[in-house]
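ZP: hey, is the 16G complex queued? I don't see it on the tracker
AM: it wasn't, my bad. submitting now with these inputs:
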Amino acid sequence: MYRRAPVPLYYQLKELIRDKIRSGEWAEGMRLPSERELCDQYGVSRMTVRQSITDLVHEGLLYREQGRGTFVRRARINQQLDRLTSFTEDMLNRGQTPNARVLSAGMCEADSMVAERLQLPPGQEVFRLYRLRTSDGEPLALELTHIYFPGCERLLEEDLEHNSLYVLLETKYGIALVEALQEVEAGLAGKEEANLLRISPGSPVLLTRRTTYTDHGHPVEYAVSTYRGDRYTFCTRLTREWR
Ligand code: 16G
C-alpha cells in the first residue's frame, strides 16, 4: 500500500482484492481472511478494510453470511451479444452442462404482441414453450418462447428437456436460423419466477425479447427470457464509425 499515493487506501485495498479474485488466487466460495488478519497483512485500519469489503459486496464480487464471514462470489456469466447462439451452445462453450425443465408446452393462439413479432394474424396457432434453464444444476433463466412455421405442431412430440430447440429446428425441421433482434430491459422477479430461479422475490432480473429470423427473413421465434440479474453481464463490442 502506498500511503502517499493520491488514491485512497481503501481503494487500493479494494483493487488488490479484485486482482486476487480475477487471477483465481482467491477462488469462488473462498472465505476471506478476518478483518483483523487483513489489517495486519496490509497495515491498514479496520475502517479501511471494512470500507473496501463493503464496496466489493455492493459490487457483487463478495457476499457476507451472518456469523460465518465474507466469501468470494461465483463469477458472473459474461454473455456476448454479437452472435446468435442458443442457451445450450452458450453453456457448452463455457464447459458447463446445460439443462432444461419444461414447465409447459403446447399450442396456443398468438396474442397481439406475439402475432406482431411473428408477423401473423392474431389468433394464429403457435407453439408455446416455457422452460427453466439451468447450468451445472444452477437455475439461470426462464425462457418463454413462441415458434411458428407451417407444421410447428409437430414440436409437441419433441423431447425439449433433453434436446436443444435450435438444433431441432435446424437439423430436423430444416429451418436455418440466421439473425435475431434482441432487446434487453430491467425487471423484477415475481414470486413464482423467484421461486424457480432460487432468488428472493423482487430481485432484479434482465428481460430479453428475441425475434429470430430464418434465411428468408421470416420471423420464426419470439422469445421472452428472464435472466438472473445477479448472474449475468451482457457484453457487446462497439466499433467507432469514422466520419
Ligand atoms: C436462447 C434464446 C432463446 C432460444 C434458446 C434455445 C435468448 C434471449 N434466448 O436462450 O430464444 O429459444 O436459446 O435454446 O438468448 P436451446 O437450443 O438450448 O433449446
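AM: back. The chain is about 25% helix and 35% strand.
ZP: great, adding it to the tracker
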